[in-house]
Design goal:
Helices cover about 65% and strands about 0% of the residues. It is mainly α. It contains 9 helices and no strands. It has a domain of about 100 residues: putative rabgap domain of human tbc1 domain family member 14 like domains (Helicase, Ruva Protein, domain 3, Orthogonal Bundle).
């Protein structure tokens, strides 16, 4: 096993690789079965109909390969993104609030310091994507702007989606509608 997990977090020095391998070898069967069920449910569509079956699937866990898409769909972020083409990029190109930018820059190096993907030496460094998402959101929702801790939420969304714009729309869904 690698010293870094799939999301870019370094494992501690005392990480028990033997126990992890024993657990994961059994759990991989479960994950594979779930991934197959999710693939059949999605069938290449970008829509999911609410049902008890979908609710049950979500509660059991969304496989990594489907997580970003499912989050986008069930949160309403996918619909908002499709209804507002180019909006995210217009936010980044518009005038910027200097106080907002300074607050965001203060927290950039504090975001996941033990994650190799957020280090300045990473290629690509996710700090740039994180900065863009937070700046866009701060200008999108001026009532909220930027609050300490949003960097970790947005950073996690970037790790999952691997996409700035999707992360922005998910952040908007979370802060604006799901957990206002």
């Amino acid at each position: 096993f690698c010293r870094v997990d799939p999301y870019g977090f370094e494992r501690p020095e005392d990480f028990d690789y033997a126990s992890y391998e024993a657990f994961f070898s059994r759990y991989l069967v479960v994950l594979t079965r779930r991934a197959i069920k999710w693939s059949k449910l999605l069938k290449g569509n970008n829509s999911i109909q609410k049902s008890l079956k979908v609710k049950r699937y979500i509660r059991k866990g969304i496989p990594n390969e489907h997580r970003a898409l499912v989050w986008m769909i069930v949160s309403g972020a996918q619909t908002n993104m499709e209804q507002n083409p180019g909006y995210y990029h217009r936010l980044l190109e518009g005038e910027k609030n200097a106080k907002l930018l300074e607050a965001i820059k203060t927290d950039m190096n504090r975001t996941f310091p033990d994650n190799v993907k957020f280090r300045k030496t990473a290629d690509p460094c996710l700090q740039h994507a994180l900065y863009n998402v937070l700046v866009a959101y701060g200008h999108h929702n001026k009532a909220v702007g930027y609050c300490q801790g949003m960097n970790f939420i947005a950073g996690y969304l970037i790790l999952i989606t691997k996409n700035e714009e999707e992360s922005f729309w998910l952040l908007d869904a979370l802060i604006g509608r799901i957990l206002p």
